[in-house]
Amino acid sequence: MNQLYNLQKDKLEMKNHAENPEYKEILDNMKKMLGQELKTFNRPYGEFVPGGDALPYIEQNNLKDIISKALVTLAEERVKMKKMAKKK
């Protein structure tokens, strides 16, 4: 759902003008400018920049490996912190 407010007249954003035909050109121009800006990120971005997923896909097995390694590292760091605390 698009949202477009006239902040000079409506600081509390109570009246959405996105569906108002009088504001169509303004909304279209803003969408175009946003799309151009998002293209500078060199990756897909939702409805504005076409392409695959917005973020690279990680295969399920790879994700499990990454999580497992992170948990092992976290456990190792906890052990180190406990040893350091005992030395103090």
Structure description:
- The chain has two helices and no strands.
- The chain has helices at 24-39, 60-87.
- 50% of the residues lie in helices and 0% in strands.
- By secondary structure, it is mainly alpha-helical.
- The chain folds into two domains: 1-52, no CATH class; 58-88.
- The longest helix has 28 residues, at 60-87.
- The model has no long low-confidence stretch (mean pLDDT 82).
Shape: elongated
Number of structural domains:
2
Give the biggest sheet. Answer: none
Write down the overall mean pLDDT: 82
For the secondary structure, the number of strands is 0
- Low confidence ranges: none
- Any idea what the radius of gyration is? 24 Å
Strand content: under 5%
Number of discrete helical segments: 2
What's the end-to-end separation, in Å?
57 Å
Label the structural class.
mainly alpha
Order of helices and strands: HH
**Into which percent range does the helicity of residues fall?**
40-55%
Task: Provide a concise account of the structure shown.
By secondary structure, the chain is mainly alpha-helical.
Strand and helix map with partners:
Elements lengths: L23 H16 L20 H28 L1
Give structural attributes:
mainly alpha; 88 residues
